[in-house]
Amino acid sequence: MIWNERMECMASGELKEYQSERLKRTVDYIYNNSPLYKKKLDACGVDLALIKGIDDIGKLPFTAKDDIRDAYPFGLFSQPLENITEIHVSSGTTGNPTVVGYTKEDVKLWSEVMARALCCAGAKPGDMVQNAYGYGLFTGGLGVHYGALEMRLTIIPSSSGQTKRQLKLMSDFKPRILTCTPSYCLYMAEEAREIGLDPRKSSWEIGVFGAEPWSESMRKEIESSWNLLATDIYGLSEIVGPGVAQECRHKKGLHIWWDVFYPEIINPKTGKHVKEGEPGELVITTLTKLGMPLLRYRTRDIVSINYDICKCGRTSPRISKITGRTDDMIIVRGINVFPSQIEHVLLGIEGTKPHYQLVVDREAGKLDELEILVEVEHKIFSDEIKQLRIFEERITREIESVLGVSAKVKLVEPKTIERSEGKAKRVVDKRVK
Ligand code: DLL
Predict the structure, then answer these.
(1) Does position 338 have pLDDT exceeding 90, yes or no?
(2) Could you tell me the domains of the chain?
(3) Quick check: CB of 304 below 6 Å from ligand 1?
(4) Atom in ligand 1 nearest the alpha carbon of residue 254
(5) Is the dihedral of CA 308, 309, 310, 311 positive or negative?
(6) What is the CA radius of gyration of the chain?
(7) 237 lines ligand 1 (CB under 6 A)
(8) Which ligand 1 atom is at minimum distance from the Cα of 213?
(9) What confidence tens digit (pLDDT) does each residue in 161-198 have?
């Protein structure tokens, strides 16, 4: 089943007219409603009269994550605060997190694209969905919730965590769809086996997994553990959270809803478009958003794009699974973590040095483990063991409260962490890709 057959299967010629019309309207709207964007467009000297259609998109300037952070908290909103019905926040590199605001109409759009995504994964009206993405400032829980409401699915808003309870809900209520991060899904399989439940006999037939990178081998592991179809969902808070792109049952790339989120793939160094099929940074322009519309937003996610029509009948292009990022952000248990956040904490604690390393690992079927090696001054090591422990606990607490994810802090002596002449190696990611 296709949720919005008209838009999802539209011939590219007709769709181009929509995209062109919507782009012109968005540029005009942004120029007149966002003082910051007006300044930016004026400074770039863009003649808006030259934006006649979607093919002119390259004449517009890019928007970077820093543009949102610099406008903290609400400076990039194109609507007065009273028209913003929902605010979401994701972590930032240093002080300021990324704040996004959606109007009622934007939430309606989010519901529509999430309904398209759930349908694309194979959900049908009447299905029950266990939504184990976190509800809150993270967009995962609410995004799936809105889409499931739009589709009239029965929602179990179980949110993330409390694994034994998740398993009981699944066994007793028998939902057909599971939505959560892929790593949490694998973790649940292990917990299930531990309590004597055979995951292969679960009621889940379809999984909608995203918010973090996951490999084809992880897909195989999930599918064989739970005996379900594991599909990939992509999104980011700056655009709408989950629901920007979604795999269909053919699992040959994620359909991106380009009537509303126009994709371009660029070389991150030159800013120029790459050839079709070549990997590059995904750039998205929102074509209908009102609260915080974005022009040519640089997602920092590396993908390639395929414009061939899919066997499922949808004409929207497909992006590949995310193969990496252009920045140093890592995703631990679905939470975005920037090494510089740790640096910021360490610089504020006397006795530590800004030499640190994050080691991320994941044992088969378990959740990500984050260990942080922190160099401390000699004198700290000469203190009593008890003092050392107190110091370690303090750093752990401060880091956890900034990152929003638990981490094991290990204090090490000066010069333990390898020095580099170039870019410091802040992250050792041992997870199998
Ligand atoms: O992670 C939204 C989301 C929620 C997507 C639930 C899918 C499911 P943010 O917290 O703003 O939003 O993080 C966005 O997460 O730029 C990617 O780097 C990464 N990401 C999201 N989905 C995927 C995916 C949500 N399917 C950032 N594969 C993005 C790989 C993903 N990375």
Answers:
(1) no
(2) 1-327 (3.40.50.12780), 335-429 (3.30.300.30)
(3) no
(4) 26
(5) negative
(6) 23
(7) yes
(8) 30
(9) 899 999 999 999 999 999 999 888 988 998 899 999 99
What distances in angstroms separate CA 423 from CA 302, 415, 427, 429, one per listed residue?
20, 17, 11, 16
Q: Judge if the beta carbon of residue 236 lies within 6 A of ligand 1.
A: yes
Provide, rounded to the nearest whole percent, the portion of the chain with pLDDT above 90: 74
CA 88 to chain centre: 13
pLDDT of res. 92: 56
pLDDT at 314 exceeding the cut of 80: yes
Site to probe by mutation for ligand 1, drawn from 322, 368, 429 as the one with most ligand atoms within 8 Å of Cβ, is 322
Structure token digits, residue 405: 């994810």
Write the CB contacts of 117 (distance below 8 Å, at least 6 apart in sequence).
147, 208, 233, 242, 243, 245, 246
**pLDDT over threshold 90, residue 26:** yes
CA distance 104 to 215: 35
**What's residue 347's pLDDT?**
77
User: Residue 370, Cβ neighbours under 10 Å: how many?
Assistant: 22
Assess whether the C-beta atom of 264 lies below 6 angstroms from ligand 1: no
Q: What is the pLDDT of residue 344?
A: 79
User: What is the pTM assigned to this prediction?
Assistant: 0.88
Binding site membership of 256 for ligand 1 (Cβ less than 6 Å): no
Question: Could you please report the per-residue DSSP string of 320-359?
Answer: PPP-EESSS-EEETTEEE-HHHHHHHHHTSTTEEEEEEEE
Best of 110, 236, 304, 327 to mutate for ligand 1, by most ligand atoms within 8 A of CB? Answer: 236
Q: Is the Cβ atom of 301 under 6 angstroms away from ligand 1?
A: yes
**pLDDT (0 to 100) of residue 404:** 84
In the structure, what pLDDT confidence band is assigned to residue 364 with cuts at 50, 70 and 90? confident
Ligand 1 lined by 232 (C-beta under 6 Å): yes
